[in-house]
Amino acid sequence: MEYQLIDGKATATAIKQQIAEEVKAITKAGGKQPHLVAILVGHDGGSETYVKNKVIACEQCGFKSTLIRYEADVTEEELLACVDKLNKDDDVDGFIVQLPLPKHIDEQKIIMAIDYRKDVDGFHPVNVGRMAIGLPCFISATPLGILTLLQHYHIPTSGKKCVILGRSNIVGKPMAQLMMQKQYGDATVTVCHSHSATLKKECQEADIIIAAIGRPDFLTADMVKPGAVVIDVGTTRVPDATRKSGYRLNGDVKFDEVAPLCSFITPVPGGVGPMTICSLMKNTLAAGKKEYYK
Ligand code: GUN
């Protein structure tokens, strides 16, 4: 079967261009340039890359961006003080604390300290709760990016069987909420995880599979129904001597054998990844416009 590749990179580029045009119009009319701040703790390779790409995306969208760096031995008090300062800074429309944080810092405590009106990651319980009951809010970037891709490619979701692999707070849980809700996916949703006894069978019956378990090549051809839509959220760094960097990004889907079965599939890289950053830009624009909260 001929499958269609979902081009997240091109979709993200087009959306960032639209955002840039809107920002131009806002500033031309005397409005404020949106300002995103990112806090990066330590020197985790993945986090460094993500934050660097977020800063580049801000430039592409015409946003102001600020990067605040701390060493891995920063105290919880220091981080909380930084969050408090950003909460109170009227020039800052939105900010994110790049995860994961070092083990001695309570991630949830930091997230809870963020003013939910500036929580463009959509991780604060106020945003998570509002999303769960379908109220306007910041929706976390990866699930929002996936929804945008499905819409952009006119992939029908209403009434479809959607299996989500993984139950993380960042992807699996919010994705399930969104795919279930009438105003977003309107699908029949099943969430599978490392202890699901019927995982393979659930996947075989799915019209749409969203893989977010962080296990390279986990989803294989024998688990996929012909004509299914497969969205790969995995970005595990695996050693690869043929690359200059010494590693490559590997998705949760065994692409070569799964793709021929699919109607649509996302590649890794170039699928969900660029859309995640693009969604953060959407949220930052909404924060600048005070679209959800005064
Ligand atoms: N770590 C992995 N994904 C994300 C994300 O979307 N936001 C933040 N802040 N940290 C992350």
From TrEMBL:
Q: Which PROSITE patterns does the record match to this protein?
A: THF_DHG_CYH_1, THF_DHG_CYH_2
Catalytic activity reads: (6R)-5,10-methenyltetrahydrofolate + H2O = (6R)-10-formyltetrahydrofolate + H(+); (6R)-5,10-methylene-5,6,7,8-tetrahydrofolate + NADP(+) = (6R)-5,10-methenyltetrahydrofolate + NADPH
Domain (Tetrahydrofolate dehydrogenase/cyclohydrolase catalytic) ranges: 6-121
Q: What does the UniProt keyword field contain?
A: Amino-acid biosynthesis, Histidine biosynthesis, Hydrolase, Methionine biosynthesis, Multifunctional enzyme, NADP, One-carbon metabolism, Oxidoreductase, Purine biosynthesis
Give the residues the record marks as binding NADP(+).
Answer: G166, R167, S168, T235
Gene3D superfamilies tied to this protein: Leucine Dehydrogenase, chain A, domain 1 (3.40.50.10860), NAD(P)-binding Rossmann-like Domain (3.40.50.720)
An example of a Gene Ontology cellular component annotation for this protein is: cytosol
* InterPro entries the UniProt entry points to: Aminoacid_DH-like_N_sf, NAD(P)-bd_dom_sf, THF_DH/CycHdrlase, THF_DH/CycHdrlase_cat_dom, THF_DH/CycHdrlase_CS, THF_DH/CycHdrlase_NAD-bd_dom
Question: Which pathway is recorded for this entry?
Answer: One-carbon metabolism; tetrahydrofolate interconversion
A biological process term (GO) from this entry: L-histidine biosynthetic process
Output one GO MF annotation: methylenetetrahydrofolate dehydrogenase (NADP+) activity
* EC numbers, comma separated: 1.5.1.5, 3.5.4.9
- Per the database record, which ranges form the Tetrahydrofolate dehydrogenase/cyclohydrolase NAD(P)-binding domain? 140-290
Q: What does this protein do?
A: Catalyzes the oxidation of 5,10-methylenetetrahydrofolate to 5,10-methenyltetrahydrofolate and then the hydrolysis of 5,10-methenyltetrahydrofolate to 10-formyltetrahydrofolate.
PANTHER family in the cross-refs: C-1-TETRAHYDROFOLATE SYNTHASE, CYTOPLASMIC, C-1-TETRAHYDROFOLATE SYNTHASE, CYTOPLASMIC-RELATED
Subunit record text? Homodimer.
Report the sequence similarity comment from the record: Belongs to the tetrahydrofolate dehydrogenase/cyclohydrolase family.
The protein in question is named: Bifunctional protein FolD
- The record lists the organism as Prevotella veroralis F0319
